Predict the structure.
Amino acid sequence: MSSCRTQRIINDSGLRIRDIIDAIEAKLLTPSTHMDRLVMSVCGADLMSDVLAFTKAKTLLLTGLTSIQVVRTAGVVDLAGIVFVRGKRPAAEVIELAKEEDLPLLVTDFPLYEACGKLYCLGLKGCSELDPGGRTGECLTSRT
């Protein structure tokens, strides 16, 4: 039995940034054109080497690290977006690079663990539950 108190709202096409904003009470730091971007999974990490090694395409990264390297890493892995936790705000240059890269940036006051938990309860999978054969975003539990 799940201890999640929120309703599972994800479907096979993923969860939209607008739903994530509501779920973790986040603020969008980049243009509102990102509201309908799809997210297929979530990863919570502060080590960019872990992000490079373990994430898949269309993954939403939750992190407490606000350096420009986070945005650069997101571009390499084709992340769906970045959420800065614990109310941390990136510098203006980080936001500008994200805009250039067409990458949604969000900020939430929730700590990393709680923000990831809220999104997991909505049905977003963690990277370990995705296809280990590549960065496809295909969820193992969706296979029949």
User: Anything to note?
Assistant: The two ends are 22 Å apart (CA to CA). The domain at 15-126 is CATH 3.40.1390.20 (Udp-n-acetylmuramoylalanyl-d-glutamate--2,6- Diaminopimelate Ligase; Chain: A, domain 1). Residues 28 and 106 are 4 Å apart (CA to CA). Residues 134-144 have pLDDT under 50 and may be disordered.
